[in-house]
Amino acid sequence: MPDNMPEDALELMELNEYDLVILDLNIPGIDGIEVLKTLRHTKKELKVLILSARNEVEDKVSGLDAGANDYLSKPFDFNELAARIRNLLRWSFTQTESVIV
User: Fold this and answer.
1) What is the CATH number of the domain that holds 95?
2) Number of domains, the chain
3) Closest CA to 47 of 99, 81, 92, 9
4) Cβ proximity of 48 and 23 under 8 Å
5) Which stretch of DSSP H or E encloses residue 98?
6) How far apart are alpha carbons 24 and 35 in whole angstroms?
7) What is the pLDDT along the chain (101 residues), one digit of tens a residue?
8) Domain of residue 70, residue span
């Protein structure tokens, strides 16, 4: 992984609109929880799903308390990941429709 990849990803998230971000906490050279806090500060409506090998209860609580909408531990079942993504996006679109009406 290039040294500047985490910073490039953060810059892309600042410049573009995304419905959902899947965030791994084990990012080389940068703390994933700090990335999450930065995202929450700048993109409050962004849905964030943490996908991480950190599977202790304390890790999950820390990620959710830092602002993640969901947390899935590795290894994971792809069908479960897809269902969680659908759920987060469904909630996102429901919220948007409520605001428009």
Assistant:
1) 3.40.50.2300
2) 1
3) 92
4) yes
5) helix 78-100
6) 10
7) 455 666 777 788 788 889 999 999 998 888 899 999 988 988 889 999 999 999 999 999 999 999 999 999 999 999 999 999 999 999 765 554 544 54
8) 5-100
Structure tokens at 16: 């573009």
- Specify the residue for token string 């999450």: 36
Q: What six digits make up the tokens of 46?
A: 């962004």
Contact 67, 86 (CB under 8 A): no
Q: How far apart are CA 46 and CA 69, in angstroms?
A: 9
At 36, the amino acid letter reads L
- Pairwise CA distance, residues 35 & 6, whole Å: 9
**Terminal-to-terminal C-alpha distance of the chain:** 45
- Bridge partners (DSSP) of residue 20 are 47
Decide if 23 contacts 36 (C-beta within 8 A). Answer: yes
Residues 6 or more apart from 8 whose CB is under 8 A from it? 2
